[in-house]
Specification:
Layout lengths: L1 H5 L5 H5 L9 H10 L14 H10 L15 H10 L14 H10 L14 H10 L9 H4 L3 H10 L14 H10 L15 H10 L15 H10 L15 H10 L14 H10 L14 H10 L9 H9 L9
Helix pairs in contact: 3-4, 4-5, 5-6, 6-7, 7-9, 11-12, 12-13, 13-14, 14-15
Length: about 325
């Protein structure tokens, strides 16, 4: 059962050989049906919980007629489901959504603003919603909005004083950064650039690369921050001087997303697990691989998705899995 649970929904032939349907839990059925809806005919629907149903219906809305757990979904479940499948709004108990749920939902589905009880929203979530959707300012209780730093900042920016003064932004770092990210028209009114730390710059440049010329903290970004930034904005590679500090896991993460940066990679830092994960996504780099680093589990994960690499697999490892019923192509 552990093997079934670990490699759910990877290969349908495994399930056709399965004789332990009664042992599968709700999360197992969810994972299986998301990848292979043809197994619905043998599913025990009663095992799926409210959160399981939210995950499943977000990808497979066609199973809605089997669901009887609508009342078991909480605010987080409804937020995820409605972001992906707004068609189910008529079944939602809107009272279950909390402030953070409304912020997450309205970020992608602003059409549900009329369903929100704005009077009950905490001040900080009001501010975060208005940052992304300034038009909702008129729905907010201004007295409550002033209780948060972000709310006060938004009122300063969106409601100019009677004299029309152009006030400079000088509030809490993170409140100001949120405004800069979502309201680029206020760039020139932000006077705290030099006070941003490398971590804050790394986060900001991922979504606002046009601010690169204002950044003076490039040398302060660590390896993790560089990988996160280069995943989002690979054009900054020429500014990076931390390539030698990238671990094998960080190289795997970066090259899976940005194979164009492979020229900078120190391939010797990747271990077997890193290689198995990388080659599943980017098989083009097989000629760089030290196959001796892969152990039995690494080979299992790799061959399950890329069986053509079986020719590189040691015979004893290949035979080990073949004897256990894993029908990859024969080695040549």
């Amino acid at each position: 059962m552990e093997l079934w649970d670990k490699y759910l929904a990877l290969s349908p032939w495994r399930y056709r050989r399965c004789r332990c349907w009664s042992d599968l839990k709700g999360k197992n059925w969810m994972a299986l049906l998301m990848g292979h809806p043809e197994f619905a005919e043998v599913c025990d629907w009663s095992k799926l919980s409210g959160p399981n149903w939210a995950e499943l219906l977000a990808k497979r809305p066609g199973f809605a007629n089997q669901c009887n757990k609508w009342n078991d979904m909480d605010g987080v479940d409804w937020t995820w489901l409605l972001q992906n499948q707004p068609r189910f709004a008529d079944k939602c108990d809107w009272s279950k959504l909390k402030g953070c749920d409304w912020w997450t939902l309205l970020s992608r589905r602003s059409q549900f603003a009329d369903k929100c009880d704005w009077a009950k929203l905490p001040s900080k979530w009001m501010g975060r919603i208005v940052v992304e959707h300034p038009r909702f300012l008129e729905r907010c209780d201004k007295r409550k909005l002033r209780l948060s730093g972000l709310g006060r900042l938004l009122l300063v920016l969106l409601r100019p004083d009677e004299k029309g003064n152009s006030r400079k932004i000088d509030f809490c770092h993170w409140d100001a950064i949120k405004v800069v990210i979502h309201m680029p028209k206020f760039f020139d009114r932000f006077k705290m650039w030099e006070r941003l730390c490398p971590c804050e710059w790394g986060w900001l440049l991922q979504v606002r690369p046009e601010l690169a010329d204002r950044c003076d903290k490039w040398d302060g970004l660590d390896a993790i921050e560089w990988v996160n930034l280069l995943e989002a904005q690979p054009q900054f590679a020429d500014r990076c001087a931390k390539w030698d500090e990238f671990s094998g896991s960080l190289w795997r993460q970066l090259i899976c997303k940005r194979p164009s940066l492979a020229a900078h990679c120190d391939w010797t830092k990747l271990n077997g697990e890193n290689w198995a994960s990388l080659l599943r996504k980017q098989p083009r780099f097989a000629d760089k691989c030290d196959w001796a680093k892969l152990d039995e589990n690494d080979w299992f994960m790799l061959l399950d998705e890329r069986p053509h690499f079986a020719r590189h697999c040691p015979k004893e490892v290949f035979d080990y899995w073949r004897k256990r019923g894993y029908a990859w192509k024969a080695r040549t």
